[in-house]
Amino acid sequence: MTESNAVAKRQEIHEKYRWRLEDIYSDDTLWEKDFTLIKEMLPEVAKFRGSIGKSGEALLSCLELKDKV
After folding, report:
1. In the chain, how many domains are there?
2. Residue from 64, 23, 18, 65 nearest 46 by CA
3. What pTM was estimated for this model as a whole?
């Protein structure tokens, strides 16, 4: 049996295994607000690529940013 790295499309996943956004967000406006916030944070997150293992301070900073998300 070979292992595939392909990501299944949402409609290919059984419904009981899908995230239900309505359980997390009461309306689309709240989801859009968080989505926009996360997009704005991406450059800050990208700064940690390849550096979090260099020091405890770098790791802590990354984890603190993760907590904001």
Report:
1. 1
2. 65
3. 0.59
